[in-house]
Amino acid sequence: MSRIGKKPVEIPSGVTVSLNGTDLTVKGPKGELAMSFVPEVTVKHEDNSITVLPVNDTKRARSMWGMQRTMVSNLMTGVTQGYSRKLEINGVGYRAAMKGANLGLQLGFSHDVEFPVPQGIKIETPDQTTIIVSGIDKQLVGETAAKIREYRKPEPYKGKGIKYEGEYIFRKEGKKK
Fold first, then answer.
1. pTM value?
2. Smallest Cα–Cα separation from 62: which of 15, 6, 136, 140?
3. How much is the pLDDT for 1?
């Protein structure tokens, strides 16, 4: 039994939910999100909550039960509060700045890296070594932050590169004489 799946998802005030078969649309103050449910679960919209239940007792149905409930919860949080990831840049001469609709990154390459900002994502650079990726879709925010980090992952010897805020970089000792 899924402990997460058993809990109903409360609908916050100011959020409207429409359920058409397996399609769920959520509208809130920050925007609108939609998702489709897998056939292994059923969804009920009662009073001020949404309940997700497995169709049968197969392994796939039980695993989808908790995941689909969490995805509904992420939709509710996204349209009310939104999500954000903070990235930090470490390294001499490494910096980031917004250049129009693109994010310009100087990461020690022979050229500057231009990252086009996806639709539905907002990127801020409060200073040259900090990047804040925010939006209402949790999956898209995480994917965008991962793509930016991928340009120059933190290396273990000096710790240079792009890392998530609070990420611990396992450091290695260099060559010995």
1. 0.89
2. 6
3. 64
